[in-house]
Here is the input.
Amino acid sequence: MSVDASTVRRVARLSRIAVTDDEVAAMEGELNAILGFVEQLGEVDVEGVEPMTSVIPMAMKKRTDVVTDGAKADDIVANAPASEDHFFVVPKVVE
Here is the structure.
């Protein structure tokens, strides 16, 4: 894939970057270099390569999945101007 000057201007407009006519040629070269590198990555044979989460094998730390109510209802509504039964009391806005 090759990027031309009109594509550079369109990408710049979409990304809200002000690009002068002098900068278009330089950006065209940069974007073509980036896309060339991405095409090179597509040529790499990764068949049989397992995805990894780290450069060294390790087990992820896991916490126990326990359902709780938080036990912080009183703390949450402590600074509210008005509360009732652990809920915020707000003025009525719809008649």
User: Anything to note?
Assistant: The longest strand covers residues 83-84. Strands lie at 83-84, 87-88. Residues 21-42 form the longest helix (22 residues).
